[in-house]
Specification:
The chain is mainly α and about 220 residues long. It has one domain: Up-down Bundle (Four Helix Bundle (Hemerythrin (Met), subunit A)). It has 7 helices and no strands. The N and C termini lie far apart (about 40 Å).
């Protein structure tokens, strides 16, 4: 998935969604996006002691968090309030949002904690390589197999499917970890999403590092 390539196409729709929030400060919108992500992580953690039905709420919260994360940048540019401080705050909030969601899903009991940790490391490395490019004067990098838009969509979809597959439908087993037991393997939808994050995240991080390295002038 490389959704960043569609940024120009969806820009008119983002502008339309942003209109009701033009009077908001970009920092307030960034704070709202972070708050929704923290709420998503908290609700995901509660699944361990309650019901997988809560995954539906997690999916909605993750989606809304990603939506406001897009809107805050558009509002900042449209109202002339873009600033270095706001950019820094946005990046910091994004990392804490990633942490909150992944940790919450790891606690939920529906994902392997080790796999979740590896996925989190890959996500942080991916973001680091993108901002490091900016730090050395090459501009912010958004390309690769796993942009932030990609991973938020994957998380929203995975949590929705985890909710759906955990319901007592005819095709759903009584326990999600038994879903593929007939094939000799045992994993959940969230495990698949995190495995994708590990592979695509490392690929993206390395690809970004190589791209920046080649763009820099050789040392004398």
């Amino acid at each position: 998935m490389v959704l960043e390539g569609y940024r120009a196409r969806v820009a008119p729709y983002v502008a339309r969604l942003s209109r009701p929030f033009l009077r908001w400060t970009p920092n307030a919108l960034s704070t709202l996006a972070l708050s929704l992500a923290v709420a998503a992580g908290g609700v995901a953690a509660l699944v361990r002691w309650t019901t997988p039905f809560l995954f539906l709420a997690v999916a909605g919260l993750v989606f809304l968090s990603g939506l406001f994360d897009v809107i805050d940048g558009h509002v900042a540019r449209a109202t002339g309030r873009a600033s270095a401080r706001g950019d820094l705050l946005d990046h910091v909030f994004d990392r804490y949002a990633d942490l909150a969601i992944v940790v919450g899903l790891a606690v939920s009991g529906y994902a392997d904690p080790v796999l979740a940790l590896l996925a989190l490391v890959s996500l942080l490395l991916t973001s680091y390589m993108g901002t490091q490019a900016q730090a050395v004067g090459q501009g912010r990098l958004y390309g690769g197999l796993l942009s932030r838009t990609d991973r938020l969509l994957v998380l929203a979809l995975a949590t929705f499917l985890e909710f759906d597959w955990s319901l007592p439908w005819p095709w759903a087993p009584s326990h999600p970890w038994e879903r593929f037991a007939a094939f000799g393997v045992s994993f959940t939808v969230l495990d698949v999403a995190f495995a994708y994050f590990v592979i695509a995240g490392q690929w993206t991080a390395v690809a970004r590092a190589i791209r920046v390295y080649r763009a820099l002038p050789p040392s004398s």
